[in-house]
Amino acid sequence: MSRPVFPSVVLAASIMSLVIGCAIAVGPDPAKVPTEIELVEGAVDITLVELLASDGVGGSGAAGGYQLTRVGHTVGTPTPSILRGLPVDLMAVDENGKEIAAVSLFNPRLQRFHEAPARVLNTGTLVVRFEDPGYKIRFVEITVHSGPNVGSFTVRVPKQDASTLLPMPFP
Amino acid sequence: MGRFTVMARKRVALVLLCFALGGCGDFAFSGNPTTLHSRYSPLHPGASQNVTFTIEAEDPEAQGISEVRLYVYEYALTTGDNGLPQAVKRKDGQWGEVEVWDGPWVLQDNVFTGTYTHDGGFPDESYVAYIVRWSDQSGSSLAEQWVFAAGEWPFGKMPIPVLSNGPPGKRVNVCFVADASYDQGNMTAGVRAMLDDVEEVIFDGFHTSNALDDHQRRLWQFYYSPEITPLKDLQPLSDIPESVWDSPIATHPALVHKTNTTNYGTGPHFTLNGEEDPFGNKDPRVNVAVHEATHAIFGLADEYTPGPPPYFELVDPSVPHHNVFKDPNPANEPGWEALGKRKLVDGWWAHEPENPICLMKQTDSMHDLQQTCIGRVRWYYEKLDAEGPDEVLKLVGKKNFNP
After folding, report:
1. How many CA atoms, within 13 angstroms, populate the side-chain half-sphere of residue B257?
2. Any idea what DSSP says for residue B257?
3. Angle (CA) A29 A31 A37, round 5°
4. Does residue A129 sit at the B interface (CB-CB below 8 Å)?
């Protein structure tokens, strides 16, 4: 005599109903809270470059165009690179011209206001944190599509070593 | 005794499975999603300072909120082996459930509000996580988690998290920086005043925008700099503290003016007011903060008309959902005919008609971002590759967006 199977079917389906159908848990589980948290989870190698954009005549002493004013390597989170096509495109390349990372940013010499005309500054600064595994970036190619300094510029990034390791902003 | 063939068993299982899945149709996320908002106060509490948590839940379809639970977890801040900040469960610290709201009185008019005060706060060098979880009568639950610093911050000038929850590389990270208007001879007091001001900007501003609807709030993290910048009214960016740029967390600096100014602006950073207009004029600071952040983070343009021409457009056609155009008939934007078009000034066009009003057009209140702008926001979030329940993101992401 075969054993009845219906109860097992009902049980399985009921469990499925509970698991799949109705009881849905969304969001973090209080029972699975980690005992350790990395505040900078997913940190990567970063080459930080600071670039000064200048009109070359504003009394800053800077030549017109883009100049490298600070560089260093560190770890952490890179500058967001999702948006492309903003007024200034920056592409970091290695010594062979191979792209390492690219970002697109606003023109640092153009300040836009809520209820006033945009203001053109004599100088402006960009600070970019390029993701750079192994610290291979040697040049940054800058293309300004609109606003002050329209054109193309290339700055050389000195080879990084221990002396250029940026200190963390904490002891 | 009746016997079931294999075929019959499959049919029964199929019927029950359909019944089970049909039940999903009644789940709170399907129609008008249940919302769950939480906040704490004050931002970055001092050592031993009381901390108050406030939870709001809304159940538009009256499924029946059965309980709301609050969990608090206390960590000690330290430096990890990689030299980066780390938080480790504190021995004898608070760890687990602190409050339960249950019973029929929980659900009143489909809305629940509860507060809990953690008396005595937390010691120096604390990192505090909290989870709030709402459950309905079917056993389904919805939870959110936030983390914040408490007591003395042991990492110098590094931006301090006041509301975070995940990897900075997969989040939008906003770092508030007080400008010189907060400098009253005491940096600590000035920064504290700025923090008190931006509490409202976060919870009554950003968290009320449809750009951060429901679970998309979890994609935004907020920090602040313990330094005051000497910057006044949008001077060059170089005045933003190096500690912000050099910190291991890439941020969108948000410069906070203490008093009302119309010098809101957008560049690589954005600006906002921290304090109400002392003259009683309209107080758009929370709306303006979201508007300016939308420029800086998502690259969306103003839709003023007529006004001065602060418009810009992205030059890369691979970035979708542009909200202004030089061409009155752009080729690559779906839905153009259906949405209509609106001339801004000579040579510039907006994608959408006058109404409904988009926050990129008008900032007198927290207008919703309209379809094109929300399209850009959703696209950005997808590119962000955020971790977490993507299926939920897709579910709630469709709620107000039907292009």
Report:
1. 21
2. E
3. 80
4. yes
How many CB pairs (< 8 A) connect A and B?
277
The complex's ipTM?
0.84
Q: How many helices (H) and strands (E) would you count in chain A?
A: 1, 11
User: Lowest-confidence range among B23-37, B87-101, B357-371?
Assistant: B23-37
3-state secondary structure of B258: coil
Q: Could you tell me which residue, B173 or B25, shows the higher pLDDT?
A: B173
pLDDT digits over A156-170, tens only?
998 877 666 676 655
Task: Give the chain B residue nearest A123 (alpha carbons).
Answer: B236
- B188: exposed, middle or buried (Cβ count in 10 Å: 0-12, 13-18, 19+): exposed
Q: What is the tens place of the pLDDT at every residue in B174-202?
A: 999 888 888 888 888 999 999 998 898 89
Residue matched to tokens 């499925």: A16
Whether residue B194 contacts residue B273, with contact meaning beta carbons closer than 8 Å, is answered with no
pLDDT of the residue at B210? 93
Residues of chain A contacting residue B380, judged by C-beta atoms under 8 Å apart:
82-83
Which position has the token pair 């313990």? B226
Cα distance from B337 to chain A (closest Cα, Å)?
Answer: 25
* Chain B residue nearest residue A2, CA to CA: B3
Return the closest-CA partner of residue A11 out of B13, B99, B34: B13
- Cβ(B150)–Cβ(B45) under 8 Å? yes
Residues of chain A neighbouring B264 (CB-CB closer than 8 A): 113-115
Give the integer Cα–Cα distance in Å for A83 and A104. Answer: 6
Mean pLDDT across chain B, nearest whole number? 77
Q: Is B210 on the interface with A (CB under 8 A)?
A: no
How far is Cα B170 from Cα B388, in angstroms, rounded to an integer? 10
Query: In this complex, is the C-beta atom of B91 within 8 Å of any C-beta atom belonging to chain A?
Result: no
Tokens of residue A54, six digits: 């200048």
pLDDT band per the 50, 70, 90 thresholds, residue A102: very high
Instruction: Look at strands B141-150 and B126-136 and give their pairing.
Output: antiparallel
Tell me how crowded residue A41 is: count the other CB atoms within 10 A of its CB: 15
Name the nearest CA neighbour of B149 among B54, B222, B202, B198: B222
pLDDT band at B284 (very low <50, low <70, confident <90, very high): low
- Contacts with B328 (C-beta within 8 Å, 6 or more apart), sequence order: B341, B343, B349
Higher per-residue pLDDT: B130 or B335 = B130
Which chain A residue has the Cα nearest residue B127? Answer: A37
Contacts of A110 in chain B (CB under 8 A): 267
Element (H, E) at B159: none
Q: Quick one: CA torsion of B230, B232, B236, B240, rounded to 10 degrees?
A: 40
Which of A39, A77, A121 shows the shortest C-beta gap to B236? Answer: A121
Q: Does A144 score more than 50 pLDDT?
A: yes
Q: Which among B153, B209, B97, B394 is positioned nearest to A29, based on CA atoms? A: B97
Of B226, B267, B295, the C-alpha closest to A126 is B267
